[in-house]
């Protein structure tokens, strides 16, 4: 697998809960979690199809992105199994913004928000071929 | 041996803070990383921890499906093992698969790295089946020789968790050997037990691998040191512990039902046998933020 060169970086009020949610709802896998006094200093999660996200606790004030409000952001993830993933995400408590649908550009997917409000879109469209 | 990991806030009791010169001095640091692809079949989890300023006490190392390696960063890990609770101390220890708790005594300050090893890891890292270690707590140098000392020395010098984990990766990968894996039937049986959290029936398991129950029992015990039924008990117990650690902790009756115990009394008896206390006492006793949360446990509802 090629090295991941782009990492969305997110901030959460309750980063522990966010990690649990991303694992339960989207099948992300915890790769590294560094904690100090219950604060998540840094965490990396891998997406099942490759790529990943980094996140940390909003309580971490020394972060260069400390001004980014927690629960902010929008991430698009390519998936081969949008239907199964949709079911899983909804079962885990994701808030549906746009249900499963086929787009006129040939993608099938959906958009949900996690408990703190970050938007997560999933679809079969994998970007224009380079 | 078991359970050094991140604090679960709902489980933890209030830390005993040390008031020094007017400041509250507790340190509570954990770091978890997924082992590299090379180590992953052997090492299921790698956790670093540093606790300071908590009160002296004991920590219960509970039975689990993993062997445990504990590498100390400064003071040795003090254990009270066996029925007679013989005290011992190790800078690098290996705890085998056991069906009783191992007690860790601490003075409130602890720092180390814990590795959860798969039974396959016992073969690849130590060149021995897990049964050869049995339920004992051994010094790591009995198993990997001078590399244990190297590990401890280099860990103490590592400035960050990232650096310390790199040392673990380096020293352990160098020792990965080629003791051929156990018979495929045994690996299959272990995997089935693990993925069902001990709820697969042993008679069905024997049928699936095509052996008699008796033959499976003997071969299994020779590899893992536990009989299939004992491994099943430990795995079911582990699942119950995992459920009890989840936020919004489910009731004991619900946990008992979810794990396949007849009833709550059955769950309590199993806890008395395997943990040496009822679940409520365990949840109340763990003072250190020590109780690990198994985020990596897949498939929990």
Automatic annotation (TrEMBL), chain A:
InterPro entries: Glyas_Bleomycin-R_OHBP_Dase, Glyas_Fos-R_dOase_dom, VOC_core. Gene3D superfamilies: 3.30.720.110, 3.30.720.120. Pfam families: Glyoxalase. Residues 4-125 form the VOC domain. This is VOC family protein. It comes from Actinoallomurus vinaceus. The lineage of its organism: Bacteria, Bacillati, Actinomycetota, Actinomycetes, Streptosporangiales.
